[in-house]
Amino acid sequence: xxxxxxxxxxxxxxTVPAGDLPEALDLSVPASELxxxxxxxxxxxxxxxxxxxxxxxxxxxRPGAAEAAxxxxxxxxxxxxxxxxxxxxxxxxxxxHTQYSSDAQYRVIDQAQHGHAYGLDWLVITDHGSATHAKIxxxxxxxxxxxxxxxxPELLTFQGLEWNIPAAEHATVFVHPGRNEVEVLKxxxxxxxxxxxxxxxxxxxxxxxxxAGIKFLGEQVKRRKIDGALFFANHPAxxxxxxxxxxxxxxxxxxxxxxxxxxxxGHQAAGIPAPNGRGGARGxxxxxxxxxxxxxxxxxxxRTWGGFDWMTSTVGGLWDSLLAEGKAWWITVxxxxxxxxxxxxxxxxxxxxNANGKYNDPVYNGxxxxxxxxxxxxxxxxxxxxxxxxxxxxxxxxxxxxxxxVDHGRLVKALDARVRVTGDRRWSTGTPLGxxxxxxxxxxxxxxxxxxLQDVPNWAGFIPVLKRVDLIVGTVTGPVADKDTFTTPNTxxxxxxxxxxxxxxxxxxxxxxxxxxxxYLRLRGTDGNRTQPGLLGTAVDPYGPQLDVAGAADPWxxxxxxxxxxxxxxx
Length: 571
What we know:
Layout: E1 13-15, H1 36-47, E2 82-84, E3 87-96, H2 108-117, E4 122-128, H3 131-151, E5 156-164, E6 170-175, H4 181-192, H5 203-222, E7 229-234, H6 244-253, E8 258-262, H7 310-313, H8 318-324, E9 330-332, E10 345-346, H9 353-356, E11 363-364, E12 381-387, H10 392-401, E13 404-408, E14 412-421, E15 436-439, E16 444-453, E17 468-475, E18 491-498, E19 505-514, E20 519-526, E21 531-532, E22 544-545, E23 560-563, E24 566-570
Parallel strand pairs: 3-4, 4-5, 7-8, 8-9, 15-24
Antiparallel strand pairs: 1-15, 2-3, 3-12, 5-6, 6-7, 10-11, 12-13, 13-23, 14-16, 16-19, 17-18, 17-20, 20-23, 20-24, 21-22
Helix pairs in contact: 3-4, 4-5, 5-6
Protein name: Histidinol phosphatase
GO molecular function, one term: 5'-3' RNA exonuclease activity
């Protein structure tokens, strides 16, 4: 990435549409049939290792992968959301448990009503994969979900499950609503859930089963059994057992299904200090390495940083190493709600989960639960999706395309980030989050960021104040030789914007210079209450999030937002 400041506006540029593979990138087209400019482009990308089999699952070889769309349409009513930048931003949560999970207690309608009341537009019910759930729960929860869709038409309620990934941690898997949603989820769970596989399987066999499970979901979409399926790895660094090569292999198995991981885990209330709370670790990230852990991870990876997972929060770390390969891999946040802080209910008496696949409906007990580690959906974390409409398909398309930013404690009200040719302020030409802008080498580009500052109290009763926004930029280096790589050398914070305004709107811009090599960028913001240099040093990240200490990790006193990336590539 260069730093020139040529402000001419006559450079051809494009945002690559879904499924449109330019001839220069299509290796089935012989070089002799390419135009001189396309031939030059292909030589550049081949020389950089950005084309060919090793880059087959990247936005570089297949730019349209970041925009891949599901099939079919299920439209709701007008719905809510916030209009900004040409999209309808719909807040949601893809990781929620109910009485159909062995360690939870709420009805579907309980979670949905609270989520909607706390400002969510969509959510996913993800009860734990298990023998009982596969046999009973996946069927029995569906009527409750269908009833909730009818009772709350202004909330998009998906059915999914929390998959025990063979050889790894957990993941959200969910599908587009339709007549086959239960059948596909049940077939998937019975065939691929790690808890149901033979205990004699080797690690290699289980890793292969995880890949097969993701491919199975993609096949169900191709065969029109369902109109879309998505996978997000949950709390990926919590126990250190999601190795870098497994994450890469999930992504490469089917980039239209396996699209990301939790940038921040749920269970954020677990960090509320005693005596008002549990006094534990945010996200229940209080583990140490085990025999099953990936040996290369540092001890710091087993804790959250400003409430976020180490894989996301470390500038130049594992997430950035994926983005530097050109892999479309997105982050989310959610509640992981099981039992909620300050709730006054308990499981219904006489429950027999093993026999019935569920607990009896919760009952009021008059006791305030200060030891629970979870918040209600929407109470603390939001995954904000840029959708084309209020519909199930539009939410899944937005997630798949990476048009997503996340925040804790409603740190900001709304934002729109775009990369454009320098000086071109037409919103329709800007490339949004998750997008790929392609311009001629030597073209000057700039980031334009518009933020609506928060002006209403969050659910803790105060109006958050944004203090700083960091721009993180990394060079695209192409496929890694070692799939267990979890750092990248050329990603760092290139600019920090101090925010002095307390209300209204803030517009920021930054010249990205003249394009001389492919790069990506992402953004984060903070209330500035807790910072420290990042794990890779002050030259990489001078004011990153601070490591969370169990017993002293008030989630409301340490708020951040993160965006997904935008790539800028040579045409």
